[in-house]
Amino acid sequence: MKKIIAFVAVAAMSLSLFALDIFNYVQINGNVKTLVQTDYDIGSKFGNLTRTPAIKTVTTLDTAGRAIEVTELTPRDAIISKTANKYDVYGNLTEQIAYDAESKVLWRNVFTYANGLKTDVSEYDKNGLLRAKTIFQYTDGKLADETGYDSDGALIWKIVYKYNAAGKTQDVFEYSADGSLDLQETYTYFDDGKIESLTTYDTYTETSEKKVFRYASNGTLSEITTYDNTKQVTNRLIIKYDAGGNVSKVSEYNIAQKFGTTVNELISMSEFVYK
Where is pLDDT greater, at 117 or 261? Predict the structure, then answer.
C-alpha cells in the first residue's frame, strides 16, 4: 500500500520485492537463521540478456522466525544500511532503529500496543525528533482503520479496511487528508482461503489493474499475473522454490508488443538463500 510510514518504507522487515512483498503470500519453512536476498539489474548486450548483482539484503532471524536484523549490502558486501528490530515478551515488534554504513542512526520507529493490538507507531528522525505518527483503530479485534499524522498532529492520510464473512480482508480504501479516495484494493479468495486476486483502482489515473494468483499442484504460489483495465496481461511474476519448499528465485517480466510480436521481457530478478 502506498500510505505506509515514510521511514518504514525504507526499513527492513519488508523483504519487499518489486513493490510487492512476496513473503506476504509465502512462508519460510524450516529452522532458518539467515536469509540472503540478492537483487539483480537486468540489461542487454548484443541481443542477449545480462544480469548484474545490484544489492544484497541479509536478514537474521531469531528462533521464532522474526527478523531481528536486516543489513543492506553492495555487491561487494560493503554495508549500506542496517536495521535492528526489538520485540516484547509477547513477540510484538516494539522498536526499529536504522543505521548507516558508519553506524550512525538514520531513523527510529517506536510501536505501542494495548491488549495485544498495535495502537500506534511513532517515527523519529536521526536527531530524535518526532516526524510522524500512525494511529490504529479496531472493531471486534480487527483493524478498522489507520490514520497518519505529521509531527504537528495534522492529518496526512487514512486507510479503512473491510472484511468478508470469513474475516479476510476484502476491501482497502486509501484516503487523502481532504477525505478524497486515492486508491481502492479489492481481494478475492479461493475456498481454501488462498488469495485469488487483487484488484487496484487508482482514482488519479482512473485506471485499474488486477493481479491473479496462480498455484502449483502442491499448493505453492507459482505465478502472479497482472492485467490492465482492458484485461490485457502486462506483467508476470514467476516464483521458484528450493528442495526445502522455500522461495529460491522470483523473476519479473513485462509483457509488451515489440517488433510485431508479444514478448516476455525480463526486467527484475531476485534470488534467495537460506542458512
Answer: 117
Q: How far apart are the first and last CA of the chain?
A: 30
Calculate the alpha carbon distances from 216 to 93, 189, 213 in Å.
33, 16, 10
| 21 and 242 Cβ atoms separated by less than 8 Å | no
Residue indicated by cell numbers 512462508 = 27
CA gap 69, 64 in Å, rounded: 14
Q: Per-residue pLDDT for 14 more than 60? A: no
Residues 115-130: pLDDT tens digits? 999 999 999 999 999 9
Residues 225 and 233 sit within 8 Å (Cβ to Cβ): yes
Q: How far is residue 235's CA from residue 251's CA, in Å, rounded to a whole number?
A: 11
Give CA separation, 218 vs 28, 107, 213, 241, 244, in Å.
16, 42, 14, 12, 13
Q: If DSSP states are collapsed to H, E and C, what string results for 62-82?
A: CCCCCEEEEEEECCCCCEEEE
Strands of 62-193, DSSP E: 67-73, 79-87, 93-100, 105-114, 117-125, 130-139, 142-150, 155-163, 169-176, 181-189
DSSP state at residue 107 = E
Using the predicted structure, report yes or no on whether residue 133 has a pLDDT greater than 50. Answer: yes
